[in-house]
């Protein structure tokens, strides 16, 4: 019983001390944060705030040549969903797919990866290869670098040119499998310049290959 009384006295003393410290306001205390509902009710309306101009897109200069910067920004302005890194990842995947389809002579695979003119050029080269009795046994060893070298808008069409620096092991065989030229043991440095295009108003997010050439 005595113990209970002592605990009660200690509790009363602590309560008194807390009141003396926290219960008296000196006029210099900072008010506690308001509940979220009150903060929202008293916050200035967003409509009354001055409009801020959107920040310019940050473009990594390691994957874009200086001359292409303005064109890339034009593409971003026309297509807010455009992302440089994601585009280059897709371009490298397309580079591999197109090369492998061409080496195998897969005209149908090339059809949905390229436009009509590029597809026709590949088909013509495949036909000439077959007529000569040649079979390509090539392998893309690695893509050392992929850099946007040019870009821009042509009406609704976005056009982006990518320079690929790659190592390719190239072998040409005859119809009986004998090696005519090349070697799979030695990779050859290759420099290609490919242009990809897409209608930014189209719901289809895919880009197609519209031009190919070798780098100068």
Per-chain topology:
Layout: H1 2-23, H2 36-42, H3 69-78, H4 84-104, H5 107-113, H6 116-131, E1 134-136, E2 139-154, E3 157-174, E4 179-199, E5 208-214
Antiparallel strand pairs: 1-3, 2-3, 3-4, 4-5
What would you note in describing this structure?
This protein has 216 residues and is of the alpha+beta class. It is built from six helices and five strands. It has helices at residues 2-23, 36-42, 69-78, 84-104, 107-113, 116-131, and strands at residues 134-136, 139-154, 157-174, 179-199, 208-214. Strands 1, 2, 3, 4 and 5 form a five-stranded antiparallel sheet that branches. A hairpin with an 8-residue loop joins β4 (179-199) and β5 (208-214). α5 runs antiparallel to α6. The radius of gyration is 33 Å and the shape is globular. The chain starts with a helix and ends with a strand.
CA-based shape: globular
Tally of individual helices: 6
Uncertain stretches of 5 or more adjacent residues: 1-58
Helix content: 25-40%
Please give the alpha-carbon distance between the first and last residues.
100 Å
Report the average pLDDT across residues: 79
Alpha-beta classification: alpha+beta
Estimate the strand proportion. Answer: 25-35%
Radius of gyration: 33 Å
Compressed to H and E, one letter per element, the order equals HHHHHHEEEEE
Say how many strands there are: 5
Largest sheet, if any? 5 strands, antiparallel
Brief digest:
With 216 residues, this protein is an alpha+beta fold. It contains 6 helices and 5 strands, in the order H-H-H-H-H-H-E-E-E-E-E.
């Amino acid at each position: 019983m005595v113990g209970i009384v002592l605990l009660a006295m200690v509790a009363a003393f602590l309560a008194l001390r807390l009141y003396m410290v926290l219960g008296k306001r000196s006029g210099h205390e900072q008010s506690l944060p308001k509940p979220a509902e009150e903060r929202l009710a008293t916050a200035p309306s967003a409509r009354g705030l001055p409009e801020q101009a959107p920040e310019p897109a940050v473009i990594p200069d390691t994957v874009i040549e200086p001359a292409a910067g303005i064109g890339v920004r034009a593409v971003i302005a026309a297509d807010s969903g455009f992302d440089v890194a994601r585009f280059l990842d897709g371009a490298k995947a397309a580079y591999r797919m197109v090369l492998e389809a061409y080496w195998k002579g897969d005209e149908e695979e090339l059809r949905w990866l390229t436009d009509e003119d590029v597809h026709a050029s590949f088909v013509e080269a495949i036909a000439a290869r077959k007529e000569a009795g040649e079979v390509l046994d090539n392998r893309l060893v690695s893509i050392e670098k992929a850099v946007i070298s040019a870009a821009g808008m042509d009406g609704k069409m976005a056009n982006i040119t990518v320079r690929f620096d790659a190592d390719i092991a190239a072998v040409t065989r005859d119809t009986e499998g004998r090696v005519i030229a090349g070697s799979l043991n030695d990779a050859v440095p290759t420099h290609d310049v490919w242009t990809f295009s897409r209608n930014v108003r189209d719901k289809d997010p895919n880009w197609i290959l519209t031009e190919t050439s070798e780098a100068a």
